[in-house]
């Protein structure tokens, strides 16, 4: 049973674009420097500090100085996020920000769909120990209609298209999620870090984490494709139906049924439509070629350009993986290839923090 509850959030009294940032794992070194220069209290001084110990000290100092304040009463929060997707379409995605008790995957409450790597988890664990707080939320999906929606009033927080409304006494939210399975959309490394921290500390508070819960039926929820580009891989040789151009092939790709894998392969100036096996996902078709020399991009023009200028040998252009396919694999206990999903937009960091102490 998913243990979803209210929490006493820590936050900036008056947050603005000067103090928020994208999640730590999508910020480049150049972007980090620009964000840090915006304001001495920008959240990247916590999420991407060269020293996790210094980040923890900063977090507590900001609390002592009133840069951050803690709410007197616990609450969950309704969230609404406006965005323009990579396809140029305007959408609004809605969710619920709450506290979740992290439980091992074996409990089948929270389901993963991707493999993780040790490096990021080691850094995030040092940050948890130092700050004794969850600095950023992770992104989870669930089936069913939302138990809480954005109210018809001015939001309590409104920054860069993300709006938040406090909702106190939302016991119905806890009851609703008690019987739900949750799928990790973004945040596998941080979830596993939370499990490690809880096991290490052994307290009820240490097992909690901040999550954003989004319904799979939300109209603003989209998975976008992540295309594959291989460098120094002249050994990859595919057949398939030859077409005039990548643009034509992508149009054909959109018409293909999802009961079998299909991808567009572009190499040596030739474009081919490659079909896989029944029941196979598009990403699994490409995963047959391994990960040596692979890179990823959400922009198919970039993928094709790299091959055209001979910076790469072959590009595979994919359809977005369907949410129901991700959930099905996760329920079977299967993990999928890296970058199977591309959820956009990323959640904004710096709006709420979740202390792990009473």
Secondary-structure map:
Layout: E1 4-5, E2 10-11, H1 29-38, H2 44-47, H3 52-65, E3 69-70, E4 76-84, E5 90-101, E6 110-111, H4 118-131, E7 133-134, E8 138-142, E9 157-159, E10 162-167, H5 171-177, E11 182-186, H6 188-201, E12 208-215, E13 223-224, E14 227-230, E15 241-243, H7 246-255, E16 260-267, E17 270-278, H8 282-287, E18 294-297, H9 300-308, E19 314-317, H10 323-331, E20 342-343, E21 354-355
Parallel strand pairs: 6-11, 8-12
Antiparallel strand pairs: 1-5, 2-3, 4-5, 4-10, 5-12, 7-21, 8-11, 9-10, 13-20, 14-18, 14-19, 15-17, 16-17, 16-19
Helix pairs in contact: 3-4, 4-6
Terminal-residue CA separation:
23 Å
Tally of discrete structural domains: 2
At CATH level 3, the topology of the largest domain is: Conserved hypothetical protein from pyrococcus furiosus pfu- 392566-001, ParB domain
Number of helices: 10
Which superfamily, in CATH terms, is the homologous superfamily of the largest domain? Answer: Conserved hypothetical protein from pyrococcus furiosus pfu- 392566-001, ParB domain
Average predicted confidence as pLDDT:
95
Q: Low-confidence parts, pLDDT < 50 over ≥5 residues? A: none
Measured by DSSP, the beta-strand proportion falls in 25-35%
- Structure summary, number of beta strands: 21
Largest sheet: 9 strands, mixed
Q: What coarse outline follows from CA principal-axis ratios?
A: globular
As a percent range, the share of helical residues equals: 25-40%
CATH architecture of the largest domain: Alpha-Beta Complex
The SS-based structural class is alpha+beta
* Radius of gyration from the alpha-carbon trace, in angstroms: 21 Å
CATH class of the largest domain: Alpha Beta
């Amino acid at each position: 049973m998913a243990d979803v509850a209210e929490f006493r959030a820590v936050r900036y009294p008056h947050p603005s674009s000067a103090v928020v940032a994208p999640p730590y794992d999508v910020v480049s070194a150049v972007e980090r420097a620009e964000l840090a220069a915006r304001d001495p209290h920008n959240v990247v001084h916590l999420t991407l500090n060269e020293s996790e110990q210094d980040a923890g000290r900063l977090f507590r100092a900001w609390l002592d100085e009133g840069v951050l304040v803690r709410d007197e009463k616990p609450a969950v929060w309704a969230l609404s996020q406006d965005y323009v997707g990579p396809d140029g379409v305007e959408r609004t995605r809605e969710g619920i920000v709450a506290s979740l008790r992290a439980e091992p995957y074996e409990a089948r409450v929270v389901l993963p769909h991707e493999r993780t790597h040790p490096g990021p988890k080691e850094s995030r664990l040092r940050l948890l120990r130092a700050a004794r707080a969850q600095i950023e939320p992770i992104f989870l999906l669930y089936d069913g209609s939302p138990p809480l929606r954005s109210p018809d009033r001015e939001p309590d927080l409104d920054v860069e298209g993300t709006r938040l409304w406090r909702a106190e006494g939302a016991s119905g939210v806890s009851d609703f999620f008690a019987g739900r399975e949750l799928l990790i959309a973004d945040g596998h490394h941080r979830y596993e870090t939370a499990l490690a921290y809880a096991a290490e500390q052994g307290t009820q508070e240490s097992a909690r984490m901040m999550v954003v819960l989004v319904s799979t039926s939300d109209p603003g929820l989209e998975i976008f494709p992540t295309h594959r580009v291989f460098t120094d891989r002249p050994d990859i040789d595919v057949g398939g139906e030859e077409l005039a151009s990548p643009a034509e092939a992508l149009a054909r790709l959109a018409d293909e049924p999802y009961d079998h894998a299909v991808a567009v392969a572009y190499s040596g100036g030739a474009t081919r439509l490659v079909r896989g096996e029944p029941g196979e996902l598009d990403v699994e078709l490409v995963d047959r070629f391994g990960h040596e020399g692979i890179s990823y991009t959400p922009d198919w023009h970039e993928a094709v350009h790299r091959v055209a200028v001979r910076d790469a040998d072959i590009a595979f252009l994919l359809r977005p993986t369907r949410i129901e396919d991700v959930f099905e694999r996760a329920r079977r206990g299967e993990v999928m290839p890296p970058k199977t999903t591309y959820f956009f937009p990323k959640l904004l960091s710096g709006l709420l923090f979740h202390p792990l102490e009473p």
